[in-house]
């Protein structure tokens, strides 16, 4: 978290135990080789296997197999395996977008207005963390706890442009 333009980044010390990552990176590399168009992204508290650019049927099949393999291999580790929109994410337990929002809100909130827009399973924790008076928007037609829905990225851009124009006219 960074609390201002010139402020230093504050790192959550609970993210320091990432020994589990080394256990799975080789496995993810194998699935990447077996699934042309897929890739691995390493984040601070997560590793994500992306297959959006792979053959759709092969990617889905490999994702199901990978998820099962990971859940078995990591059963005693403090991580969770999440299947999302053309991704398999392996993240530290409790490290979610909702938890990040609560940390920011505690540091610089409360906020008068809350708006969250997302298109994936990993956004559901954020939608759940928002106040009842907030606006949450799921992009696409997948099931969601969001209060509103937009059809796709062009609709999101149009919505944001309309918000900007409304604000400019006030």
- Counting helices, strands and paired strands, the structural category is alpha/beta
Helix percent band: 40-55%
Number of helices: 5
CATH topology of the largest domain: Alpha-Beta Plaits
- The proportion of strand residues reads 15-25%
Major sheet characteristics: 4 strands, antiparallel
CATH superfamily of the largest domain: Trehalose-6-phosphate phosphatase related protein, domain 2
Q: Say how many strands there are.
A: 7
Using the alpha-carbon principal axes, give the shape: globular
Radius of gyration: 18 Å
Unreliable stretches (pLDDT < 50, length at least 5) are none
CATH architecture of the largest domain: 2-Layer Sandwich
What features would you describe in this structure?
This protein has 170 residues and is an alpha/beta fold. It has 2 domains: 13-92, Trehalose-6-phosphate phosphatase related protein, domain 2 (Alpha-Beta Plaits, 2-Layer Sandwich); 111-169, no CATH class. Helix content is 41%, strand content 19%. It has helices spanning 19-34, 56-73, 97-108, 124-129, 153-169, and strands at 39-42, 46-50, 79-84, 87-92, 115-118, 135-139, 148-150. The strands form 2 sheets. The chain has a 4-stranded antiparallel beta sheet, covered by helices on one side. The chain is globular, with a radius of gyration of 18 Å.
Characteristics:
2 domains; 3-stranded parallel beta sheet; 7 strands; 5 helices; 170 residues; alpha/beta; Alpha-Beta Plaits
């Amino acid at each position: 978290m960074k609390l201002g333009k010139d402020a230093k980044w504050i790192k959550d010390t609970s993210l320091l135990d990432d020994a589990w990552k080394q256990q799975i990176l080789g496995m993810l590399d194998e699935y990447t080789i077996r699934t042309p168009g897929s890739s691995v992204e390493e984040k601070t508290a997560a590793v994500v296997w992306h297959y959006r650019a792979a053959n759709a049927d092969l990617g889905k099949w490999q994702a199901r197999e990978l998820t099962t393999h990971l859940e078995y291999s990591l059963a005693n580790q403090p991580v969770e395996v999440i299947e999302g929109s053309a991704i398999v994410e392996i993240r530290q337990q409790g490290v979610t977008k909702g938890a990040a929002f609560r940390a920011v809100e505690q540091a610089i909130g409360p906020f008068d207005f809350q708006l969250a827009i997302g298109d994936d399973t990993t956004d559901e924790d954020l939608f759940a963390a928002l106040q009842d008076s907030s606006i949450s928007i799921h992009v696409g037609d997948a099931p969601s706890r969001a209060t509103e829905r937009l059809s796709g990225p062009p609709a999101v851009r149009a919505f944001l442009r309309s918000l900007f124009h409304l604000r400019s006219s006030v």
